[in-house]
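Session log. Operator J.P. requested a structure for one protein chain; no other inputs attached. Running the standard single-chain path with token output.
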Amino acid sequence: MSPGHCSGTDLHKTMRAIVVRHYKTLINASGQIMGWGDAPRVKDWESDLIYVDMILNKLDIRFSAIYTSYLERARQTGMFYARKRSITLVHDTLALNEINYGTLYRKSKLWVEKAIPQHKKDPDFVYPGGESFRQMQKRSVDFLRFLTDKHKDETVLIVVHAGVIRGLVSHYFGLPYAENLKHEISHRYIGDFLLKGDHCVGYDELGQASGFVRDGVIAVPMGEC
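Structure written below.
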């Protein structure tokens, strides 16, 4: 199918997934590998979240549920948006975690690029003590498929990580994964996915444009039927 897997069929029983990134941490700002580790927030950590929240409110987007990865930076971000909306429960899951870089936690990204030639070039390379990008992509896509079945005709907020977002966009749009492992994903990214089964029948970006858009890989909005 064409990018977006837009089939032109009835859009009934779709789930709208608003996908955002967690707040910025000190490791995000330091040029180090993070993965399944966590780190304190940067001093102005709320500024990106307030920006995203303002857009969600302006567009009057309301959620029936909030899901996050199990990592603290995503869970706390989800709780920020939940408190703003008087939502009492935030669901967290390992399935939405960033890629597990294993023993590379807190290594310099520049060092990793030199020491491991496969880094962000081979999606099937398994990091020492961790996993591959392909494995991360599969578990996150599988979980969204589960959510799509559970939340038909609903809108959910999903708080995840840059690597997860790259994996989702690459999967749903049928992009070659190896070529799309490095696009920038801002902490002000807001991905608007309309999902039906395993297909994305509509996509837009409501916040700061991703590298996929700025690098000319995709154009938004996509998949309008």
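Operator note: Residues 15-214 form a domain with the Rossmann fold fold (CATH 3.40.50.1240).
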